[in-house]
């Protein structure tokens, strides 16, 4: 089930974001992600439009939007590969006419996921915080 996030979901969302980031972004030191945990909880997530994927009463994933920008889409490692990410992305598509996001080029699994779900690469840039190349991706309702 997808629902609007509640403030008491923040701990679970930050945990999912961190755990999934460390695994998916193995090319970035875990200490980098750890340093952003407080800001995710106090700034980034509360300022976004958030939806959580709830499974058996537990938060298993979430998507964060800022207008048409997908700021975050993360699924708990133990829940990945079961459709939660696709459902969250489809939910965002049902709310917006266009979506934009950035995914690290070295996160091949994410790039393939987004391409499989209708997004296309439109360019690339270097992330100023990590120095890693990000692929700019876009989806538009047809």
Automatic annotation (TrEMBL):
It is an enzyme of class 2 (transferase). The keyword Ligase does not apply. Residues 1-142 form the N-acetyltransferase domain. Its EC number is 2.3.1.-. InterPro entries: Acyl_CoA_acyltransferase, GNAT_dom. Pfam families: Acetyltransf_7. Keywords: Acyltransferase, Transferase. One of its GO terms (molecular function) is acyltransferase activity, transferring groups other than amino-acyl groups. Signal peptide: none annotated. This is Acetyltransferase. The lineage of its organism: Archaea, Methanobacteriati, Methanobacteriota, Stenosarchaea group, Methanomicrobia.
